[in-house]
Structures are given as structure tokens and as C-alpha cells.
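Intended use. Records such as the Protein kinase domain-containing protein entry shown here are meant for training and evaluating sequence-to-structure methods. They are not intended to support clinical decisions.
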Amino acid sequence: MGYLCMLLLVVLFIPSTNALQTSQTQVLLQLRKQLEFPSSLQILENYNGDFCSLSSSARMSISCQDSSVTQLKIMGDKLVKVSEFSGFAIRNNSLSESFSIDSFVTTLTRLPSLRVLSLVSLGIWGPLPDKIHRLSSLELLDLSSNCMYGSIPPAISRLVKLHTLVLDGNYFNESVPAWLDSFSNLTILSLKSNGLKGQIPFSVCKIKTLTNLALSHNELSGKLPDFSTLTGLHVLDLRENHLDSELPVMPEVLVTALLSKNSFSGKIPEQFGKLSQLQHLDLSFNHLSGTPPDALFSLPNISYLNLASNVLSGSLPNELSCSGKLGFVDISSNKFIGRLPSCLSSNSDKVVVKFGENCLSIDSQHQHQGSYCEEAIKRGKQSKRRNIAVVVAVILGACLVMLLLVVGALLLCRKFSSRTHKQHILPKLVQENIPAGVSSELLANARLISQASKLGTQGAPVYRLFTFEELKEATNGFDSSRFLGEGSMGKLYRGRLENGTSVAIRALSLVKKCSNQNLKVRLDQLSKLHHPHLVGLLGHCLDGSGQDDSSGKKVFLVYEYVPNGNYRTHLSGEIEKFQVKGKGSKPCQQTNVQDDVYNFGFILLESLVGPIATGKGEAFLLNEMASFGSQDGRRRIVDPVVLTTCSQESLSIVISITKKCLSPEPSSRPSFEDVLWNLQYAAQVQATSDADQKSDSTS
């Protein structure tokens, strides 16, 4: 008996290995205070025992090991997500204005043994701080249904043990991070219901451990990467974005693919009919065409198949085989004709089939006449051809307009620098490497568009001199609220003239050697350049004073205000500065023609490559240009829009002149006359190809 009593005393006085450290108890109480006392943590208020001993619930769970917190799960009651978020506290939907996410995360980092952290629907707001990486033991991080915004901090990539990252239902509004392949153990990545933009980076496809990828309900666009490299991917959820490519090859082990409410086009790949593990496939509300693979319906594990609201056409074979596990099929709102296959028309209670709004030869459910589907398909093809023509016209037209501006400036510079040369010299037409058999009419139409600069001069604003007082009033004294930016060409302000016209005003400080006479001659020449696609110079003000303390003469150039950005903005989808070898010219500066040709070559190169050029350097683009030599290389690097809308002959002409412009040896670069002639010739070749294609389609 005495031995048993002694043993009992020893057991009672041995400290529990899970007894929480006092410091960590204080951390939990501090977190409760910072979270403004959520009801799920009310149990901590009067609890005097060990927090590690608390019973877990659906809304709160604390687990410990070796006297430290290893798991913390808290679920709040702020479930409603507002449609617009300004980046500040929202009454009843977020924590108060006094909440500091930076201080909150600092407190969290005092729990260094945390392996599981789940803070859901607590109203946490603000940009997620980089210091989250200090929780280096984290294996699961779930911060969903809060009010965090901005970019996902790169420091998260340092959480090398992380296998689950869930940031659903926040307001992250930058791009999907390109550093995601830094995770070597990540299996679940869920960024649903945010405002993420841009393309899905290829780096996602390098996370070999990934099993679940959810990016639905964002603003993602562009082409999908090749997911076939994710050999362990089971769930892919990309619903409700703006993705507009063809469907790529999918991993063979895929179980669920949710791709509805995007803008996917083209045919459903035959490879989809070989996904033996696939159970759920939703391709509804896209622009998919053609006839779906028969094998889709007979996949051994398929139970849910939704192809509704596309432009799928043709007839499904009557002998179509359906999987025994198939429970739901929706092919409604397409352009199917013929009879419904027997395996879909049976009245079995095991499968629900929706097939309305087609042109099927069946009485039940609403069907259109066969002519409706045929006409709709025909209209779709015509619309696609029109879109192609528009894209080609925009690309070539933009290139020609940009070149026209450079040529005009070059001609004016030459005229200005050679005062004794009074005669107007027309650019010489160079007709090198013209393919045999080209008609004289085509060559005539490919002449330099020397009269293009006269387009749009009717009704153009009259160039005038402005007083400094006028410009000061237009910009509210050059107030900082009117400041648009600053670059190598001086400061830029937005202004409003007395008549209500919005203008852009550029303030330049000039070198002393630039005489007023030379400057006025140059400005007079520039003022005569008018075109509907060029920003017009409306006037100038010389030697204004009081705007700043910089030395030298000052000139203010007054332009039309163009709010929609420049050509590069439309290429990349960003307001990005990209400098190459050429230098921007100033009103009194002599330009280097070879550098101008080189710079314009880059404009052509970026036009050919498209959005992939965004953020890339000069060396990258020059290296990629070597791929133009082969058809496979072109398919890899040339923008799909350009590749699918330009004829091979026209594209080859543009590629050839682009390479010449970017020659490393300045003396080997073509003249602007050569460049312009080649581009005009390429446009004529393309126009002929489009006309032939239209003729073939109507015959």
C-alpha cells in the first residue's frame, strides 16, 4: 500500500509534457484581444486550466506538443464578402480600424512551433506581411474568408515545409506568383475568390507534388500552361475566370476538372476521352466547338458531365456507350443535330439528362429547327473571320502608324539640320528580294504611303502659342494632383484649358546651346504632323518662369490628352517602361538614325511576340528571335493571335525586316524607307490572302 501511495505521488508531481508554457498562454490571450474577442474564443475568458487540455470544436482547436502550441484553428462569424473593397476596415465585415495586421502577425510569430494555422472568417484586413515566413514550421496555412489584399508576399515561399496553402475569399488583386515552384512539398494550393489577374504562370506546373489546384472566381486570362507535367494532380478548379485559350492536355490521374464560365475555344481534346480516373468534368459556358469525343461518355469513373452552353455541333452516334456510373449529363444549349443516343434517352432513374435548346430530332424538351443550328454555326465562322481581319488590321496598322511618326520626325530632322537643302526628297523605294510572279498592281499598292501624314488634317486643332499664365491656370499652379509622371523627356502634367479641353503639358528644361530660333523651327515642323492615330501637338510656351528652379531655358509642350495609354500598354496589359539601345530625342537633339531603326525593330519584335515580352529584357527578346527561323520555333514564341491570323508569307516578310532592324552592326540596319516599304508590302500580301480565303469560303 505504501508503495502505491509513493508511486501516485511521483506521478502527480511529474509535469505534463503537453502543459503549455506561460509565455505561450499569454500569446493566445493577446491574439484573442487583437482579434477583438471573437465568440469562438470566449471559452478562454474565464478558463484557468491548461489551454492544451481544451476540447476541440468546429470553431476552435488548440493542440500542443512539448509545452508549445503546434496547431491553432479559429473560425469567426464574419462570413459575408462585400463586392467592392477599398482597402480599409468595413463595418460588420472586418475588424475595426484600430486593427494592425502587422502587429497581429508579429504576435503569431511568438508561436514558433506552429505546424497548423487556420484563421477563417475573422475579418482580418490589410496586406499580408512578409514576416509570416518566420513561422518556419508551418505545414498548413489557411487564411480564407478574410479581407487581405494586395500581392501574396514572396516570403511565403520560404515556408519550405508547407503542404497546404489556402487563401480563398480574400481580395488579393495582383498576379498569381511566379515563385510558386519554390515549394517542394506543396500538395494543395487554393486561391479561389480573389481578384488575381494575368496568366497562370508556368511555374505552377513545376510543383510536382501538387494534387489540388483551385484558382476559380478570379480575373485570370490568357492561355493555360501544360498541366500534363503535374502527374499527381487530382483536382483542377478554374471556374469563372477569363481564360481564352484552347484546352490543354490534362494529367492522366485527374479526378475533377471544373473549367466552366471562361472563354475556352476550339475542340475538346481527344485526350480527355482517355482520362480513366475522371469523375467530374464541367466545361459549360465556354465557346467550345466541334463534336465531343465519344469516349467522354464511357469513361469508367465518370459520374458528372456538363457540356452545356457551348457551340458544340454535329450528331452523337446512336450506339454511343455510357458509363454505368454516369449520373448527370447536360448537353443543353448547343448546336447538336440528329437523334439523342439511346443511352441518354432512356428513362432510367439513375441518370439525369438535360438536352434542351439544341436541334435534336426529339419531341421532349424544347428544340430548335435544324436550320437554326446550321445558321448559327455559319454566323460563328463568319464572325471569327471578321475578328481575325480586325486583329490583323490593328497589328499592321499600329506598326505603320508608329513607323510613320518616326519617319516624319526623321525627315524633319534632316530638313532642319541641312538648311541649304530646300527640295523635298521622297524616300527611295527599295524592292529587294521581291518574290517572282508578284503582279505590278500589288507592287504599285505597296508604295510608300507618303500622303498618310495628311490624313486627319481636316478639322485638326490650330497650333498656337500659350502664355505661362494660361498653363498655370490649366494645371492649378502645376499642383501635385495634376502630376502624371516624369521621365527622360521631362515632367508631365494634366491640365484643362479655359474652353474645357483636356491636355497633357510636358515641362522641359533645355540646354543653353539650343537657340530659340532652332527650337521654333523644330516645333513648327512637328506641329504640322497630324494623323487620327497620332497624339497632336497643340502648342507651346517658351521661357515660362516660376515653375521650378532648374537652370537653362524652359519650354512647355501642350499635347492632346490621351487617357487610354500607348501601344506597348495594349501589347502587355501594363503602363511599363522598357528601354533599349536607342535614346529618346529632345526638341534640340540630333537623332541617331541607326538607333531609331533599332528601337523600331524592338516595337516590331514586341508586336510579334506579344504579352510574353512583358517584363523581359533586351537579351531575352534577342535570344528568342533566333526561334523565328523554324516553324516549330515560330509556334513557340510568336503570339498566337499573330500566328493564327497572318499568312505565312506576310509573317515571313515582317520577321525578315525585324531581324534586319535589330542587326548588331548599325551599318547593316535598313533605312526607314526600306522598313516602311516592307511593312506595306506585307500588309498587301495579307490583304490578298484574306480576300482569297473569303472567296474560298463563299464559293
